[in-house]
Amino acid sequence: MSPSYRFTVTDELAGIRLDRCLARLNDSWSRSRARRLIDDGRVKYNDNPAKPATLVSAGDILTVDEPELETLDLVAEAIPLDIRYEDDDLLVINKPANLVIHPAAGNPTGTLVNALLYHCNDLSGIGGVARPGIVHRLDKDTTGLMVVAKNDRAHQALSLAFRWRKIDKTYLAVCYGELADDDGVIDAPIDRHPHHRQQMAVVEEGRPARTLYTVVERWPGASLVHCRLVTGRTHQIRVHMAHIGHTVVGDPLYAGRQWRNLSDARIAAFCRDFPRQALHALRLGFAHPVTEEAMEFEAEPPEDILRLMKILRGSEK
User: Fold this and answer.
1) Is 294 exposed, middle or buried (0-12, 13-18, 19+ CB in 10 A)?
2) 303: which residues sit within 8 A by CB, 6+ positions away?
3) Is residue 264 flagged as an active site residue?
4) Distance (Å) of CA 50 to CA 38, 46, 237
5) Which residue in 19, 139, 141, 191 is the catalytic one?
6) pLDDT tens track of the chain, all 317 residues?
7) How far apart are CA 10 and CA 228, in angstroms?
8) Overall pTM surpassing 0.85 (yes/no)
9) Bridge partner list, 241
10) How far apart are the first and last CA of the chain?
11) DSSP, res 237
12) How far apart are CA 241 and CA 247, in angstroms?
């Protein structure tokens, strides 16, 4: 049976486009997903057919009828997984770099989903398409901890926990520049970049996004930062750190040529050639979706980031 939703537009959402409003009302929908639902005739606006550009008013009623879950022709593959915890309901993995989460154009195989299908017999789906067990994502080249649901009950509970911001996520990032403050808050809305569609950006009418950061260590021209996500927008840490002028080392989309600001030529060359964004999901905390037991995990940074830190410290020549 397909899920149905009924929303009442609040005062804070009044005056924005209907597709943007839906994306704000349900964190599991991107704006493009909301628009597809509208274009497919699955959204009613005050019991009438909806249009994406309609400006909503406080008190408007939006009803959404999501489609049944589509199944994909996915292949189970014996891809090694670094499993940090597993029980009947979930597993926690330490994702390596260069691993795509789910199959898409250009990546039909070799993904985390293919590996999960081999490891587990029965996994749940999300978002209208079978993406087994996936309740949140890490970018292809971001490493670190992810939780995966092994059944629908766990999937629904974890999805709600993410939506209501009850998941504690802390990332380690190596960033260019020496941040002036020891800690701070970046509160800046994020949406698709208006001109570069593969990038996200801070956009005035974007979705609310909040990142808390703490500087752990400073080196000449760079800093080690812990970032705690309050929201979970696409590329959030990468965009927010770029927004305050401290892009993540190795970031192919946002860092530009900040390596040129490093005074040591050898360190600058190493940062220039670092093959991915130096971003790692360090800690993950949540209540177990079935037992409600408090769970917390930590995964040490991978070797490439550890070496980058040594070089920036000057402890490796």
Assistant:
1) exposed
2) none
3) no
4) 6, 9, 34
5) 139
6) 557 899 999 999 999 999 989 988 887 677 777 888 999 999 999 999 999 999 999 999 999 998 765 555 678 899 999 999 999 999 999 999 999 998 777 777 899 988 998 888 666 554 444 556 788 989 999 999 999 998 878 888 898 898 889 999 999 999 999 999 999 999 999 998 888 878 999 998 888 999 999 999 999 999 999 999 999 999 999 999 999 999 999 999 999 999 999 999 999 999 999 999 999 999 999 999 999 999 999 999 999 999 999 999 987 65
7) 28
8) no
9) none
10) 61
11) H
12) 5
- Which amino acid is located at 13 in the chain? L
Between strands 143-149 and 279-287, the pairing is: parallel
Question: What is the C-alpha separation between 53 and 35, in angstroms, rounded?
Answer: 9
Q: For residue 37, which phi and psi values (nearest 5 degrees)?
A: -60, -40
How far apart, in whole angstroms, are the C-alpha atoms of residue 218 and residue 1? Answer: 53
Using left for φ > 0, alpha for ψ between -120 and 50, and beta otherwise, residue 52 falls in alpha
HSE of 65 in the Cβ direction (CA atoms, 13 Å)? Answer: 9
As given in the structure block, the two tokens for residue 216 are 């752990």
Helix 18-25 and helix 31-39, axial crossing angle in degrees, nearest 10: 120
Tokens of 83: 């499993």
Q: Kindly give the residue spans of alpha helices, DSSP state H, lying in the chain.
A: 18-25, 31-39, 112-119, 152-163, 236-243, 265-273, 303-313
| Contact by Cβ (8 Å): 299, 171 | no
